[in-house]
Amino acid sequence: MASFAPASREVTFDPLKIPQAPGDPLYGLVTAYEADKSSEKVDLGVGAYRDGNCKPWVLPVVQKAEKIYHDNDEQDHEYLPIAGLPEFTNAAQKLILGGDSLAIKENRVCSFQTISGTGAIHLAVYISSPSWPIHDQVFANVELPVRYYPYFRKETKMIDFDGMVYVLESAPKGSIIVLHACAHNPTGVDPPHDQWKKLAEIVKANSLFPFFDSAYQGFASGSLSEDNFAILYFVEHGLGLVVAQSNLGLYGQRVGAFHFVTYYNRVASQVTVLQRSEISSPPIYGAQIASIILNNKQLFTEWEDDLRTMSGRIVEMRKCLKTELERLQTPGNWDHITSQIGTVFTGLDVRNTACS
Predict the structure, then answer these.
(1) C-alpha 287, offset from chain centre
(2) Boundaries of every domain in the chain
(3) May I ask the CATH class of domain 63-302?
(4) Per-residue pLDDT tens for 296-320?
(5) How many C-beta atoms lie closer than 10 Å to residue 223's C-beta?
(6) Percent of the chain topping pLDDT 70
(7) Whole-angstrom Cα distance, residue 342 to residue 317?
(8) Residue 132 C-alpha from the chain's centroid
(9) Ordered alpha helix ranges (H), 36-111
(10) Counting Cβ atoms within 10 Å, is residue 152 exposed (0-12), middle (13-18) or buried (19+)?
């Protein structure tokens, strides 16, 4: 038998020449928190709900759904279809667009299960300044150029609506506009209904394409219908759009959905190709738990109660924070603490704080 010696070649790959990538700012903060030995430390990194003991809160309705899941002997761990668990995606579609949505009835919506909200965003660019830090990374990874529109005025701690309108009205036609459906992360400042309506007019007039990131529906105000007002309004006024959706506090299970509202049925075939090449088949467990809740009338009502519990407690915590800042005579006006919704953008300068 003939022997074959490997051809002589120069090794050009040198691991030592690989540049060190910058650390993720969010997880860097989490690492610093875990390393801190203080007994009074508070984790202000990940935007996830915590109870009065700073512990993750597993929703009672999720615990019930998990018991139903495990008591079902017919459950398996086979692959899901490329688009995900139909019972989940159909229910998620109705949750975000409304059960009587004309777009759904006319079969103008394609929905895919994704790897939480982040995975949904990756399937689809003007981004608000500031915005959720990973938005930049996600779009850069798929080589989409990123630009920014003004959103938050530090002086007033409110939305810079005039600046936002000015930039969006001058954006090139066809530009993708990333919008936070509710509880804007990280500012906690949302446009009121009249401003959402104005934004819909601009999007339609300038042929822009809205991309909604919806991570806090129901968790922001306690009302599922209030928190998806903007999405419903845009769809009702004939605008095509994309929604990246996540909810239910199943963070580690990475439960999410991607919805594309369009007049062209070919979109689903293209998204199928993307999904197949990226994750092939989405995970099943979290989708099953979410599906049980979303498709059971009693559990759905209990989930709404859990949402009101969380959002109500956040409102009370905001009031307490504002009261304490004022008691300490912290310089500045703190009305924004109670006017924001969802996440809290305090405006505190940790380098020069008057708090003791």
Answers:
(1) 17
(2) 63-302
(3) alpha beta
(4) 999 999 999 999 998 888 888 889 9
(5) 16
(6) 87
(7) 11
(8) 9
(9) 60-71, 86-97, 102-105
(10) buried
